[in-house]
Amino acid sequence: MAEVERVWVDGRLLGPAEPAVSALDHGISVGDGAFEALKVVDGVAFAMGRHLVRFRRTLTGLGLSGFSEDRLREGIETVLGGSPIPFGRLRYVVTAGRGPLGSARLDAPLTYIVAAATVEHPDASGSLVTAPWTRNERAATAGLKTTSYADNVIALAYATDRGAVEAVFANTRDELCECTGSNVFVVRDGVAITPPLASGALAGVTRELTLEWAREAGVPVREEPVPMSHARDADEVFITSTTKDVLPIHAWDDRSYAAPGPLTARLVSLFAERAASSMDP
Ligand SMILES: Cc1ncc(COP(=O)(O)O)c(C=O)c1O
Question: Which of 242, 246, 247 to mutate to test the pocket of ligand 1 (most atoms within 8 A of CB)?
Fold first, then answer.
């Protein structure tokens, strides 16, 4: 697949390697920014409305004001314009703009960055490893999609080194939480169970759609705390995320699962059907 990479920063379309942001941008110096990642299919971004709702929540959680949706949309239209990206990822970031050399903020204009690139289609299933680090459900940034993502970078590298697609975090209560860039579901006795948002997990757009569409189709789903001690003791496991949609899991540490198991298979097709019927559900 030909690699397409488009980058727009503060009103300018740039080459992917062109310098664009101040070295003193607070997003770079301390990770003071919000972001979203959306799936792109045939040049169209999926679930724009829901991603924007979450994005605004992150900006509020960070205490960043002055966001212009029109400015962001200008960037999105620019990177998605031209020849349609068949399957890819759109990523937008808004940072606090120029900052001092510390954690305080200057009252500077926000920085807007929008990028799109082709990505590979996911494999039919993947494996998980348990991360040796925890998610802090009481952190100031819990549930926010901020550019302070180094915890996820480290844990994903840990998973990749072990041949896994994702690393699973427990929270400080030793309950199942989420992965580095995906939510997690375990299937027990015919019910798909995912940790509630109080676990510290990000409110994944794919998780939300999976829960809504499952309920509408009469597929049993529940949000409830899952003690880590028996999280892997499930009949089926799957993860959800932008670009992976509903991804069956065939192994988690030393446990193996049918992938897809029957309930996961139902949700994989339900998600595909519903997503094909509307790009902004
Ligand atoms: C930490 C984390 N959890 C879960 C998800 C899944 O969310 P979504 O379905 O919106 O992609 C993401 C998305 O990247 C994430 O970063």
Answer: 242
